[in-house]
Amino acid sequence: MTTLLTDAATIFRREMLRYRRDRAYWIGQLVFPLAVVLFLGLGLNDVVRLPTGADYLGHLASGVLALLVGSGAVGAGFSLIQDRDSGFLRALVVAPVSRTGLVLGKIAARGVASLGLVTVLLAIFAPFTSVGLAHPGAALLAILGVTACFVALGVALAARLRSLEAFRLLAALATVPLYLLSGIFYPVTTLPAASRALAHANPLTYGVDLLRYGLLGVHEIPPLRSALVLVGLAALSVGVAVAAFEREAGR
Amino acid sequence: MPPAATTRVPALETCGLEKRYGSVHALAGLDLRVSQGACYGLLGPNGAGKTTTVSILTSQTRPTAGGAHVLGRDVVAERGAVRGLVGIVFQEPTLDRELTGREQLDLHARLYHLPERRRRVAESLAWLGLERDADRPVRQLSGGLRRRLEIGRGLLHQPRVLFLDEPTVGLDVAARLAVWDHLRRVHAEGGTTLFLTTHSMQEADTLCGRIGILDRGRLVTEGEPEALKAALGGDRVALELERGEGVEAALGAVPGVIRVVPEPAPAGRGPVRVAIVTRDGPQRLPALLEAARPLGIRAVELRRPTLEHVFLHHTGHPFEPEQAP
């Protein structure tokens, strides 16, 4: 157990060193949500009336933050393929390192990175949108839950796939409908019944709704249900990721 | 000091080791035994099975058949223990290019749960001669420095056996010599068992006390480099003489000479060429020259068999060159 935590901390350290050095990435992560909120949000704010009662700007701002958390997490899972490509993964798997610790370290690092990003963007959005900290605990749980789910899914996928190209294609194919059908841009309750069913099968929907509850105080799904779904899925995907990774190493 | 019982355990031992990838037989029954403290070189052309051997011995790949032990530990059943005993320097780069050398070593120390990280890392950097470049990201370092860093990383946890898969491939001459120098020091100072694979005859010859030649998944011969070469039947001395009368009698009498073969001389007068096959060529050369002096020496050449000849002799085919430059 202690080795597991030590190993997770070691991997966490390494990921944080890499994050800290990648300035261009962080600029992109700040510019994209600002552009969406300023250009799309301010334009649509007076046009769109939402059934939840929230203003569109706040709805979009909180949704984009959830999108950043989700895509950042997929990217962190994806970094396992880059580690394989650079050869670093080989050095990692021959060390007597706990595979679970490895996956948890990656999740923790991404979780901290996303928390930092959301905090900075919240401070920028708060003066001119309705986002704030209505329920900080729910926001925290949403960020960590989405991160755990998607980092782990990314790792599981990355452990199976050999090439960067295949992963990019699959990630693009899988994530675009995932993002569009999660209530980021419009409430899922306004969707036709068929798409709404798909949205409810999408784990990200629960993360988006819970984060929105945390930041705006409004929700479409009971927050407790969202929280339970996220925690359950996170545990499940971490299990799948560790198993896939074990197999990868024991080839 | 390890107890006497463990010093007798071979560092590495394989028995009938086989590895199949689909229909390809990467290893076809490999029997190896490397004693502790040895510097063993596995020599062979590309595709001979060298990397597969290292992968199995370091618990990265499971054998299809047969068994392998590192210091008495089974590489399949006792994977965790084996991983802690060995260090590996991979053929391809395996450094995180975004981290600095110091961070890289620190990370490795943490992964192996080593105490006194800071001291170890500092000592390693000093030993590698990397202090000046320790805080630059790896992507800015030259190939030679990266290689040294990989070796330093492989040694950081003081493994009992260090595996090096083609440690100097792709390096320029100066960097190669520096890496060899480091490996000699590793071997001399720490008593670490070194197991290296190489397709460079020169590398095997200069570094290794014992060599195994691997061809198509099989060990074709094994021994000390000098013994392997000597087994081919001695050195050759080529002489060019003014006169050839009585040369066979004169030189054949020198101790150690196995035979004297005068090359057919061109018609008429002129220099005569003679090939002498002898044991211990360098030691016999003075006596040979003494004996040949009355015949008028014009030129001398001493040729020793190389590992290339050994390879050719045992496999029946020449050692393919690695690749076009």
Defining traits:
heterodimer; A: 251 residues; mainly alpha; 0% strand; B: 325 residues; alpha/beta; 6-stranded mixed sheet; 4-stranded antiparallel sheet; 12 helices; 14 strands; elongated; disordered N terminus; disordered C terminus
3D structure, described in words:
The complex is a heterodimer of chains A (251) and B (325). Chain A contains 10 helices and no strands. Chain A is mainly α and 251 residues long. In chain A, helix 9 packs across helix 10. The mean pLDDT of chain A is 89. Chain B is of the alpha/beta class and 325 residues long. In chain B, the strands form 3 sheets. In chain B, strands 6-7-8-3-9-10 form a 6-stranded mixed sheet, sandwiched between helices. A 4-stranded antiparallel sheet of chain B has the order 2-1-4-5, with helices on one face. Chain B is elongated, with a radius of gyration of 24 Å. Chain B starts with a helix and ends in a 10-residue tail after the last helix. At the A-B interface, helix 1 and helix 4 of A face helix 3 and helix 4 of B.
Residues in helix, % of chain B = 25-40%
Number of helices of chain A: 10
First and last CA, distance of chain B: 47 Å
Content-based structural category of chain A = mainly alpha
Oligomer: heterodimer
Number of strands of chain B: 14
Summed up, the helix count of chain B is 12
Biggest contact: A-B, 25 and 28 residues
Succession of helices and strands of chain B: HEEEHEEHEHHHEHEHEEHEHEEHEH
Rg of chain B is: 24 Å
The main pleated sheet of chain B reads as:
6 strands, mixed
Q: What's the overall geometry of chain A?
A: globular
Find the structural class of chain B using helix and strand composition.
alpha/beta
Order of helices and strands of chain A: HHHHHHHHHH
Tell me the distance between the termini of chain A. 25 Å
Average pLDDT rating of chain A = 89
Beta-strand residue fraction of chain A: under 5%
Strand content of chain B: 25-35%
Give start-end ranges of low-pLDDT stretches of chain B: 1-5, 321-325
State the share of residues found in helices of chain A, binned by percent. over 70%
